[in-house]
Amino acid sequence: MFNKANIIMETLCIWKIIRDKKLSFSHRFIILSQILLKPLFLISIVENLLRVYPISKMLNVNITLAGNSYWNLPISFILSRLLKSKIVSIAYGKDFILQHTFLLRSIILRNLDKIIVISNPMKDLLLKFIELIKKKSL
Questions:
Q1: What number of other Cβ atoms are within 10 A of residue 119's Cβ?
Q2: What is the pTM of this model?
Q3: Over the stretch 35-66, which tens digit does the pLDDT of each residue have?
Q4: What are the extents of the domains in the chain?
């Protein structure tokens, strides 16, 4: 399950999040707690990053594109931090409202560089969601 490469990648992810000056201390703490307290989430992130990180580093990726907010967004967010690249997410529908690590999603949503929406109703929904996050100060 965990070999040397997995442990190295996990350590690198944790180190990059701890040293990320773009995130507030509380956001770093929440991201790390979500990663460390959910073993399946951690295994998924590490396994996916082990596949993608070496190729992305070799290609010198400037922008990380996240497809949706379920599993892709947290993995893409950490990858963008590892590569020191900008992160862009695409919002298709109600992907930011589905129930999956809500706190983590709202923190990542605040730290995205750009969000691409597919329709005006989706844009309105996303703006309401962002307004709700700011009111609750998550």
A1: 11
A2: 0.74
A3: 778 777 777 778 888 888 888 888 888 888 77
A4: 4-136
